[in-house]
Amino acid sequence: MKLIKKRYWLTAFAAGFMFVGVSFKDDFFEIAKQIEIFTTLFKTVNQNYVDETNPSELMDKAIKSMLADLDPYTNYFNEEDVIKFRINNTGEYTGIGAMITRKEDKLIIKEPYKGFPADKAGLKAGDAIIQINDVKLADYKEDASELLKGAKNTKVNIVYVRQGKTLTTQLILDEVDVKAVPFFSKIDDKTGYIVLEKFNNKASTETRDALEKLKSQGAEKIILDLRGNPGGLLHEAVNICNLFVPKGEVIVTTKSKNEKYNITYKTIKEPIDTEIPLVVIVDGKSASASEIVSGALQDLDRAVVLGSRSFGKGLVQRPFDMTYNTQVKVTISRYYTPAGRCIQAYDYTKKDKDGKAQKTDAAKYNAFKTKNGRTVYDGGGIQPDVELEETKLSPIAQALQKNDGIFNYATQYYFKNPNVGDKIPTVTDADFADFKNFLKKENINFDTETEVALKATLEKAKKEKIDETIKLQYDQLLVALQKSEETLLDKNQKEIKRLLVDELIKRYQYKEGLYQYYIKNNAEILKATTLLSNATEYNKILKK
User: Fold this and answer.
1) Where is the PDZ domain (predicted)?
2) Residues 335 and 400 in one domain
3) DSSP letter assigned to residue 403
4) How far apart are CA 510 and CA 365, in angstroms?
5) Residue 243 counted as domain residue
């Protein structure tokens, strides 16, 4: 009886919450009608379903499924989700200090951060945690990463597998400060380099500090690296632009059907340096706030943008706090660069038969003019002024990153060669041959579109009981496909070797070592440095 009352209460609460949230809609009656239908359904199922149900879990799934139909960025956060969301924005939390991912019944250490609990306890990338205190992860289906959080100095005993051996260690939880700017340095006597990885509420402060220190060390030119930066807080993007452009400059405008979200964001502080030559590097994983910064500096002809086309996220979200420490993050507007561009790549109102949003056709991009009259386009991310085709990942390289082929081989290599130290690892032709054998031995699938489609065909054939009829032809196609994948591995050997070296450097020298390597060897950074050393070419691009 108590459970039923709880269900009634949850249903009423959900209906009340939704009712308030939509009370200002023009189609109020239709929404109220649908809420009543949903409430009745929710109550009926909970009272009559053959087994016990979990009302809060059902509601959680119902809300998240409903919002998923809108776009990937409009999300509901239950109480546990809210904590994670705030960590992403503040950059502070108490935990083990490592990037981890769940794989089946294990937590895989992807990257331990130097000097934090996981690193101090001796954990390495590739270690697979199978037990946390008394909890065996094979029996634990919830978010296991939550078991690695708690008060500072909490002791956590773990069991993990490393290269087939089961080991134990103890972690002592500590405060973890996730830096927005994990690295900055001078590349040469006159050129400074700043890596900005995320837009949390420390982003502009850390970028300012890095810029001022580099200038004090004699830097007269700056490279700002936004590759892989997924975005974050919009106001931090404005503040970072403010370091390089005058007070009162329009950086971004948001437009919505709701007038109160139509806002123009201008710089409000005195800048650090409005003249220092600046190159911004972006790639296909630079999104949202990264695109505000690169797009605004491009439109204002304040920086040369270099690299490959950015992701194309021109949608703005705002979190709304709700009852019982829950939250909803809603896409409230689109943002536009100073020239008037919305660089949103996907149209979530138009989806194909599989429910995937359609990308804006390049033929439909609109042209805009920068401050100096250069032509730029909307519709598909920020297109660099200097586009480096050779830095784009090939499909086979993307597959190797997605299926952990490179990551897993680097793990094996590291434990076979533990004494590389601060030397730069080299991947020889013999190593590459070993890598290909490793992929075969571990049966690592590339899951290209063709391979996925072929396997799906076999599954359908099994259901229709005609798989034996086509098995010979299927096996021949699969062998041919695998041979073509091996050909692609050889064709893209140089690129794959580069990715292997990047991963191996992180194993021996952490992320800082990778950045130290990049400033002398990375193609985009070398091109940016060369461009900044040629004032005539730099000014020509910006039409100065």
Assistant:
1) 82-151
2) no
3) T
4) 41
5) yes
Name residue 388's amino acid.
L
Question: Are 376 and 254 in the same domain?
Answer: yes
- Select from 341, 372, 389 the last residue of a domain: 389
Note whether 461 and 482 are same-domain residues: yes
Single-letter residue type at 90: T
DSSP category for residue 291: H
d(CA 346, CA 376): 18
Higher pLDDT, 426 or 24: 426
pLDDT for residue 332 is more than 90: yes
CA angle 196, 199, 203 (to 5 degrees): 65
Question: Structural domain of residue 98, as residue ranges?
Answer: 92-177
Residue 31 pLDDT exceeds 90? no
Q: Which amino acid does the sequence have at 382?
A: I
| Whether pLDDT at 491 is above 80 | yes
Q: Is the separation of the CB atoms in 74 and 67 below 8 Å?
A: yes
The sign of the CA dihedral 100, 101, 103, 104 is positive
Q: How far apart are CA 449 and CA 148, in angstroms?
A: 36
* Tens of pLDDT, residues 188-224: 999 999 999 999 999 999 999 999 999 999 999 999 9
Distance CA 441, CA 401 (A): 17
